[in-house]
Every structure is written in structure tokens, then in C-alpha cells.
Design a protein that fits this description.
This protein is an alpha/beta fold.
Length: about 675
């Protein structure tokens, strides 16, 4: 029997249990062995009865000192009750409910280990504790159970598998020695049935390392595969020319990132790079510089944004940056007329457009390019892999730039974008304003309204952000639509208000934003549709309702819509939540302005899935690794993966057969 043996052939499984296990994704014996415990009962630490806390799981060693008495309730429940005493003479009562077989095995005068929680007002008691013979000294695994498959059943099957199967080694002797790792069979034995805390820690260290190492190898294989393709060669560097045409100076960070991109683009291999930058760090200018250089070298560029508002914002920015440069830009979105779309597509195909900016409209079948050399995706995590690939396939291995305005913690970036090189814009352009952030409850609302009116009276503009479009019965959450109607007829009667949310048509959104840009709208009531790249320098104040409903990174992104001009800006967070977790999160936003630090906090508090909203972003489901707790291991495995792949075709060597099989499976899931 091997790790690849169908699970139904393991002793004790059979057809019915095999069906249950396969529904859980356990289709082979090897997969069963990598079904790790979700927690452990710690029988290794004995707590004295006298100092044992109430309502916490603990283990005590005690002697049964009274005969076991049997009682029966009116409902027919059999209760077996006795007293036990530890070595210091402290006693407690034990009650077992309908546990005849367990009660029948116990003997007065013998010592046992009792695992459970103490309760009771004047005298400690344990109800239905787990009981083992003295001498058991280990961590007992508890698995994710279901109605048809208990933890005890899984424990028994895993014991059988461990005694039957020898798992092939994935990590080489050199890697294990360099990183002080145990072998795989020791690791599996001691992750499931550790005899001590030390053996458990050794096993976990090995399995965490292996899981992250295999992922890093898979991502590096993808990267190497991409980099071996021929690309569009940038023969002449026009960056200085581009900078001379600007009416402002780039930051050192912007220049460094453009330089890193150009090194790739000039090598004859496709650039594949992620550019990260906090809100207002100037990623769009970096993208414009690369598009300018590509155009001067005879290549077209395409920038795809997830929303029409964002695409239009980029288009206006590009027009202002490339004015008088001879670079021809165009905008392609779904809201254009059929005639407008047809004309743009014809000019794109004939090469009369150098830079096309748009939404999903760029990936429809009849959009053709004459010489697509650079593809830029903004807010990458909002697009599916198939959508990104479809745009890239409109050129012959074009250079690929991914921009993210959402700061992503380094550990998460290595996983989400492990197949990309990473550049970070870690400097703000001059003149970027510091934003003061305040947290208050709803009793301050009237004072806040008056505070906002002071800014409006000075000719400034502002935002009020709500989590929902319309009211939701049963939820005490302010909706944008109802709030807008209340404010325009109440506290802000006489002021020019606008409403913006994701359910509006593209034309409605465009009209509202045009009026806000021009200053016709003083106060914009909106949902998170304004979260990314809405740039109105005159907007200096933001009120966020029900702030507890937003993630930290999302609050930071929203806050980044203000402070973009020459005027001092303030952000006010309203929340009536009494939760200590909420208060902690809002204090983090209040006291931090660095998006990357905030993203780290967010990842730690919410985990990777919730950090990005859902699981459709290429985050693998880890069996044992924790990308926050194990971030140092992630960095170590990245280096080991790169070292391994320095030798061409290393995965084809016989000694790497098990590793190759694992990489193929990971690659399949990532794609």
C-alpha cells in the first residue's frame, strides 16, 4: 500500500466510509495522513485541584475515593457520581451521564487522569470529563468531525494508515539538514500522536516548512516558465524625456520602480511585475511612464481597471500627463455608443492608438491590437485569471504590470503574486497632506454635521460613506439611499448633495462624478464605490458611518480619497459598537497612516480569506501553515525554492519525483 492508494482499500474504511471521506477531499491514504488535527487535548500538564480555574479545560490526576453511585432522572437519564481526590487532598465531584461502559471500568481507590472543566458554586465538580489511565502522557488529536465521521473514527483510521504506509520524502537531505527538520514519517507520526510537546513542535515545524516550500517551488516554476518566453524588447530608454515633459518631479521611489521595470523590459523576456503602493503614492504616473516608453519603441499599451469610474479617472490622469507628448490615448468602456466603440476598435487595430484604457470591454473578442507590448491591470485582485489571460493573449507575450492600491502584507504578496517580481513605491509625492482621524459614537453626529458645514462654507467638499445601498430589515446599519434622502431634506437642506453607489448605471455614476469633480456637488453620499482612485483634491473631510462594518485596509483606502490637495483633511469614524475588538481595530486606523502596517494588522486580525473579501483570489487553503504566524518560514522557503531551481530541470531528477508530483498538484490548483 502506498500514499496514492485509494482510501477505500485502507483497512477499516470500505465503500461507505470511502464515500464520506472522499466528500471531505480525502481520496487517498496520503490525503488521510495530511488531514491534520484541528486541536489537541493536552494530557501532559497536570493542574492541582486547589488552583485549577473554573470553566477552562484542564487535566487533573486524582484517586477515586468514594463508591460510584447511580441515579436516574425523571427523563430516564442515568447519572454515575463519585468523588475524587488529588495528591494534595483536595476533592471534587465527578458526574457521568449515560456512560455505563465508562463507569463500569472505573475502580474505587485507583488513580486516573480527568480532562474537563470545573464548575460549581461552593464545591468543584466535573461533568462528563474524559478519563484515562495514569501513564497516558501525550497530546490527544481532535479532528474535524461530522455526523457520519467522528473524530475517534478518524483517529483510528489514521493510526492504521501510519502503521501501514511509508510516505516518500519530499525534502532533500541537504534542505532538511540546513533547516534542522525531521523526516516526513516522524513528522506525520508526531503531528497526529505526539508523545511530548517537543515532538509535536518538531513535527509541526517540518510540515509547515514543507507546505510553504512546495508552494514557493510551484510559484517559482510558473515565474520561470513566463520568463523563458520571448517578449517585446524595449531598445531605447525614453524615461528622461518623459520626466522632462512633466510639470512636477517624480519621487525617488517612483524613479526606482520605473527603473526596475525597465531592466525587465529591456532584457527580451516579458516583464511580470507587481507594483504596490499606498494610497496617493503615484502608481498611475509610473504606469504612464512605461506606456510612454513602450509607445516610443513602437508598442501599444492597455490598462484595464475594474470599474468605469476608475477607468475614466485613469484616462483623465493619462491625458494630463501625456499632453503635448504625441502619445495618443483612448478610453473604451461598456457605456460608450456602438459607433464610438467601433471607431476606437478600428483605430486600435490600425495602430492609431498608443494607449487604450478601459474596463472588461477591452477583453471582448473583436478588440484587436496592431502591436500590444504592455498590459497593465489595476486592482488585480478584482479580476479573474481568465480575464487577465484574455487581455494578455491579444499580444505576443507582452510585458505584464500589475498595480495594487491595496497595500498587501509581504507574506500575502509572496503567495498571491509569487509568480511575479515585486516593486514597492514607499514614498509619497511632495504636498501629500497628513489626514487626522477621529473615532466617535453617534451622539456626536450633530456636532460632526456642523463641523462638515464649516468646510463646505469655505468652498471645500466632502464625503459621507455608508456600508449599504438600501436599508436592510433587521440590521441597524445606515443605508446610503435613505441617509441621502434624510440629509438633503434635513441637516444639509440648502446644500448641494449627491448620491453614488454601485447599483447605479454607468451613465448615472459618470454624471454624479463629473458634478463632484466640477464642484457642483458639495457633499457626496456614497458606498465603497469610491474606495479606489477617486481623486478630487478639493475634498477634505470624510465621515464613515458604521465604521465597524469595514475592514482596516478598506477604511484606509476610503480615507485615502481625502488629503489629496493643498488643504488639511479630516476623517471621522462613527461606531456605536461596544465590542473590544472593534475598538481595538478603530484605534489602529486612528493611530496609523502607513497602509502596509495597517494591512499587517488586518491580516493578523481577519486572516487572508477575509482580508481580500473571499476565496477567489488564488489563496491556497493551507492545511497546517499560518501565513502570519509563519512569515519567517515563508521567507526561508522562498530562498530554498529559488536555490533548488537554480539548476535547470532539477525537478526531473529521480530523487525529486515525490516533490515533482506535489508541485504538479499545486500548479493544477493555482491555475
Amino acid at each position: 500500500m502506498t500514499a496514492n492508494t485509494d482510501i477505500q482499500f485502507l483497512k477499516g474504511v470500505g465503500a461507505r466510509r470511502a464515500e464520506i471521506l472522499k466528500s471531505k477531499g480525502i481520496d487517498t491514504v496520503g490525503a488521510l495522513l495530511r488531514c491534520f488535527p484541528r486541536r489537541y487535548l493536552d494530557w501532559t500538564e497536570i493542574t492541582p485541584v486547589k488552583t485549577a480555574p473554573y470553566f477552562e479545560n484542564i487535566c487533573v490526576k486524582a484517586t477515586i475515593v468514594t463508591p460510584i453511585e447511580t441515579f436516574e432522572t425523571k427523563r430516564g437519564v442515568k447519572i454515575y457520581k463519585f468523588m475524587a481526590e488529588d495528591s494534595s487532598g483536595f476533592r471534587f465531584t465527578v458526574s457521568l451521564f449515560n456512560q455505563y461502559y465508562l463507569a463500569n471500568k472505573l475502580n474505587t481507590g485507583r488513580k486516573y487522569l480527568f480532562y474537563g472543566k470545573f464548575d460549581g458554586d461552593f464545591f468543584k465538580q466535573m461533568n462528563s470529563p474524559l478519563i484515562k489511565e495514569v501513564g497516558y502522557n501525550g497530546l490527544e488529536p481532535i479532528y474535524n468531525a461530522s455526523k457520519n465521521m467522528t473524530s475517534a473514527t478518524l483517529q483510528k483510521l489514521i493510526k492504521t494508515a501510519l502503521s501501514t504506509v511509508e510516505i516518500p520524502e519530499i525534502l532533500s537531505d541537504d534542505i532538511r539538514k540546513r533547516n534542522n527538520l525531521c523526516d516526513i514519517n516522524y513528522a506525520l507520526q508526531n503531528i497526529h500522536f505526539p508523545k511530548s510537546r517537543e515532538s509535536f513542535e518538531r513535527a509541526k515545524k517540518r510540515l509547515v516548512f514543507e507546505e510553504l516550500f512546495c508552494l514557493q517551488v510551484a510559484l517559482n516554476v510558473i515565474k520561470l516558465k513566463t520568463h523563458t518566453k520571448s517578449g517585446c524588447v524595449i531598445k531605447k530608454n525614453y524615461f528622461d524625456e518623459f520626466q522632462n515633459k512633466l510639470n512636477f518631479s517624480l519621487t525617488d521611489a517612483q524613479r526606482r520602480v520605473v527603473g526596475e521595470c525597465l531592466v525587465d523590459m529591456c532584457l527580451g523576456k516579458p516583464m511580470s511585475r507587481l507594483v504596490q503602493g499606498d494610497v496617493g503614492s503615484g502608481k498611475t504616473v509610473v504606469a504612464a511612464a512605461l506606456c510612454y516608453i513602450a509607445a516610443k519603441n513602437g508598442y501599444q499599451s492597455a490598462l484595464m481597471a475594474p470599474t468605469e469610474i476608475l477607468a475614466e479617472q485613469h484616462y483623465k490622469t493619462f491625458l494630463s500627463i501625456t499632453e503635448n507628448t504625441g502619445i495618443r490615448c483612448a478610453l473604451l468602456t461598456g457605456s460608450l455608443t456602438k459607433k464610438q466603440k467601433s471607431e476606437i476598435k478600428q483605430n486600435l487595430k490600425s495602430g492609431q492608438i498608443d494607449v487604450i484604457i478601459g474596463t472588461h470591454a477591452l477583453i471582448v473578442n473583436d478588440v484587436e491590437f496592431q502591436s500590444l507590448g504592455l498590459v497593465i491591470t489595476d486592482e488585480q485582485h478584482r479580476f479573474g485569471t481568465a480575464q487577465r489571460d484574455k487581455l494578455e493573449n491579444k499580444g505576443i507575450n507582452p510585458h505584464k504590470l500589475v498595480m495594487s492600491a491595496t497595500p498587501i502584507p509581504q507574506t500575502l504578496a509572496y503567495i498571491l503574486y509569487g509568480d511575479l517580481d515585486i516593486s514597492v513605491i514607499d514614498e509619497y509625492p511632495k504636498g501629500r497632506q497628513k489626514i487626522d482621524t477621529y473615532t466617535v459614537d453617534s451622539t456626536y453626529r450633530e456636532r460632526i454635521y456642523n463641523y462638515i458645514k464649516k468646510f463646505l462654507a469655505e468652498g471645500r467638499q466632502g464625503y459621507i460613506v455608508c456600508p449599504l445601498v438600501e436599508n436592510n430589515d433587521g440590521l441597524d446599519i445606515t443605508s446610503a439611499t435613505e441617509y441621502y434622502n434624510t440629509l438633503k431634506d434635513g441637516a444639509f437642506a440648502g446644500y448641494s448633495l449627491g448620491l453614488l453607489h454601485g447599483k447605479m448605471t454607468a451613465k448615472e455614476k459618470e454624471d454624479i462624478m463629473a458634478r463632484f469633480f466640477s464642484g457642483d456637488i458639495q457633499l457626496l453620499i456614497a458606498t465603497t464605490v469610491i474606495e479606489v482612485s477617486i481623486d478630487v483634491p478639493n475634498a477634505v473631510v470624510m465621515l464613515i458611518e458604521n465604521a465597524e462594518r469595514f475592514g482596516l485596509s478598506q477604511l484606509h483606502q476610503l480615507r485615502g480619497r481625502i488629503g489629496r490637495g493643498a488643504h488639511k483633511s479630516d476623517c471621522i469614524l462613527i461606531s456605536d459598537s461596544e465590542s473590544s475588538d472593534t475598538k481595538k481595530r478603530l484605534d489602529i486606523i486612528k493611530n496609523n497612516s502607513d497602509g502596509f502596517k495597517i494591512a499587517d494588522y488586518d491580516l493578523e486580525l481577519r486572516g487572508p480569506g477575509d482580508f481580500l473579501g473571499n476565496r477567489q483570489h488564488g489563496i491556497p487553503e493551507f492545511k497546517i501553515a499560518d501565513i502570519f504566524a509563519d512569515k519567517q518560514v515563508l521567507l526561508e522557503t522562498k530562498k530554498e525554492a529559488e536555490k533548488l531551481l537554480e539548476t535547470e530541470n532539477v525537478l526531473k531528477l529521480p530523487e525529486n519525483a515525490a516533490l515533482r508530483a506535489e508541485i504538479i498538484e499545486i500548479y493544477r490548483k493555482l491555475k
